[in-house]
Structure to design on (376 residues):
């Protein structure tokens, strides 16, 4: 009898909880898959990519754009235009126009983070120009721009060809007093949408950009990686040092490698002078190189590795210098400095941003070609 009463009680509770859940029928709602925000004078322009699902399960994509003081106000206006209730539970990407990003997007990020409908896994992106212009453009080969932009960002991140920029990751950096965040930038190129760089932020405001050619180096600086492709242009005299140099050696030697494993190590060497040693080890596979170079020759391989180290160190130093010029620490140097220097008291953005431009970073790269081509 005791167990029977307990079973009835649990069953009743489950039925009550089930009855309290709001039932949403797909045919009666509109699903927002992408949201774009722009600055429009002193107001916020919101553009929503809305997917309509018919009783025959056919998808129809609509673009709605409204201007209001808040994103909620814009959503209210969009609902007035839509034939079905607009739901934001399927948002996968949020884009910010360049003008809004320069003014600051921390408030918009905060609004997204407290919205229970928005998942923390949504990707954030910056649009060169206005996001509304991009989303309202007619692309001959794109039927669902919301899904297309999501796939574009997601597959590049999964293959480690672009830094990840989920709401969770960006919100974490926003709440760190000594770390800045970076977000991929997108641009309309003819009939296509390209990821064309990385936007650097300081105190929530866009302060600089780096091209996609720098993504591999930026990822090496931010974390250990196990994938990613890099193209380098080395001095052409490497060909002359080969056993069978060609009659007309190239002035430059383009090569392509992919990362198999990388490790970065940071060490504070002089906290009074604000100096850090950055050591990066990279195991890679050589994918493409001039045919006159025999990689079976250990001496030739070592020369290539040394040339790669020199080139990569120069590029990494250039990127760090630029980030110091715009005063955006997207690499987490401040967090490492604070964690390993007793009494540093780097607990505010102002303190670290006063130190970061003056910080000295000693860069050392150690590359090892452990495989080359598919025949080795």
């Amino acid at each position: 009898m005791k167990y029977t009463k307990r079973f009835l009680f649990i069953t009743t509770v489950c039925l009550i909880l089930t009855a309290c859940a709001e039932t949403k029928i797909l045919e009666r709602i509109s699903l927002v898959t992408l949201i774009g925000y722009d600055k429009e004078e002193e107001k916020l322009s919101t553009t929503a990519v809305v997917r309509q699902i018919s009783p025959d399960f056919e998808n129809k994509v609509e673009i709605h754009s409204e201007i209001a003081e808040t994103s909620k106000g814009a959503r209210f206006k969009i609902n007035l235009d839509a034939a079905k209730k607009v739901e934001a539970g399927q948002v996968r990407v949020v884009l910010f126009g360049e003008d809004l990003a320069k003014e600051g997007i921390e408030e918009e990020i905060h609004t997204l983070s407290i919205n229970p409908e928005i998942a923390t896994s949504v990707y954030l992106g910056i649009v060169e120009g206005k996001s509304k212009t991009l989303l309202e453009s007619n692309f001959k080969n794109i039927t669902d721009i919301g899904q297309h932009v999501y796939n574009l960002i997601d597959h590049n991140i999964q293959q480690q060809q672009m830094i990840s920029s989920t709401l969770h990751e960006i919100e974490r950096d926003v709440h760190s007093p000594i770390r800045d965040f970076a977000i991929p930038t997108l641009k309309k190129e003819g009939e296509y949408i390209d990821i064309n760089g990385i936007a650097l932020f300081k105190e929530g405001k866009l302060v600089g950009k780096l091209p996609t050619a720098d993504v591999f180096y930026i990822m090496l600086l931010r974390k250990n990686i196990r994938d990613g492709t890099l193209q380098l242009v080395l001095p052409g005299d490497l060909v002359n040092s080969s056993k069978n140099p060609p009659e007309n050696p190239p002035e430059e030697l383009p090569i392509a490698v992919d990362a198999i494993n990388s490790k970065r190590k940071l060490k504070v060497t002089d906290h009074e002078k604000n100096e850090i040693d950055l050591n990066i080890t990279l195991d890679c596979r050589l994918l493409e190189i001039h045919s006159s170079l025999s990689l079976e020759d250990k001496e030739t391989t070592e020369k290539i590795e040394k040339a790669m180290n020199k080139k990569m160190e120069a590029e990494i130093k250039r990127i760090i210098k630029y980030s110091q010029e715009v005063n955006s620490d997207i690499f987490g140097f401040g967090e490492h400095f604070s964690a390993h220097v007793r009494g540093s008291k780097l607990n505010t953005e102002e303190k670290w941003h006063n130190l970061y431009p003056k910080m000295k970073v000693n860069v050392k790269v150690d590359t090892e070609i452990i495989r080359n081509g598919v025949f080795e």
In short: The first helix runs from residue 2 to 20.
